[in-house]
Sequence to fold (106 residues):
Amino acid sequence: MAKSTKQEIKSDLLDQLERNGTTGSYYLDLIDDYMSLWHTKEMLIGDIENRGATVSYNNGGDQYGTKKNDSIDQLLKVNKQMLVLLDAIGIKPVQTVGDPDGSEEM
Fold:
């Protein structure tokens, strides 16, 4: 599955708002907030992919070692806030009919 672009996601969110009859500057601002978080999420994922789950540190002297990449915790927080924003604007994932593996019964 190809990764969606920022513009595709924003367009889809705006389409869903329109289909739900949700209008107003407040909701458009929340979409912009969501997209800012989406950008942050992408940067955090990139950092985790580049540096890994653990990173080296050197505080000078004999203080060095490895620690958990802080981007992991931040990614979880950003994802949670993104879900909160979607809930606030009334957007829910689309439910599909079929088996849990994604195939539909005929």
About this structure: Residues 3 and 10 are 14 Å apart (CA to CA).
